[in-house]
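Fig. S4 source data, part A: sequence.
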Amino acid sequence: MAHSQECRTFNPPRPPPRFLAGICKLEPKIIRFCPDALEVLNEFSEYVELELGPEGEFANMQDWAGKLVGAVCRIAGIFQGIIYLADPKNNKCEIDSGTIAGAIEIGRYLILHAKAAYFEMGADPAIETARRLLQWVSLKQKPFLSKRDAFNALRGRVRLAKEMDAPLQLLVDHEYIRPIEVVKTGPGRPASPKYQVNPTWLAQNDQNTHN
């Protein structure tokens, strides 16, 4: 049975000779970092390396974050190429501090997207626990909760209260909840940490529950 959609050609014709001749005339440009830009890049590299540790921000996404600095450098190189194309008379082949700062800003934006993707994939047990907790909060429509509430709700999934620390911090990072200051009023153990649920998210999920 023939398909109506065209298939790709595995052996396409060679490009015209004039096009190939133009490619051969291109001179490669070696792009370097000026000292100020290198200092900015090194500072960002140190931050990434620190957060790749077992307790760091990227502990559960090391495969992706380990390539982040390289990606930022390539973005900076693309920026520099655009600058050159905009002004061919500009023969400057050094990335300055402003250009690398812009590339790093895009890198930080990518971090947020990567975190969201890893959260959706449930690539870490803490992520799956956080998702279960969100389901419980949505079902119960709780505007506030404590760490003790969370532990009791997922007692069959977690064994120790401290296992709730990472999932709760994930929900804080993603702005599902925010910590509330707890004032100790008497002797004894410190009060369980308390959180307010994002009211916008809670209202949306209340509608989804009823639909």
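Fig. S4 source data, part B ends here. The chain has two domains: 29-121, 125-210.
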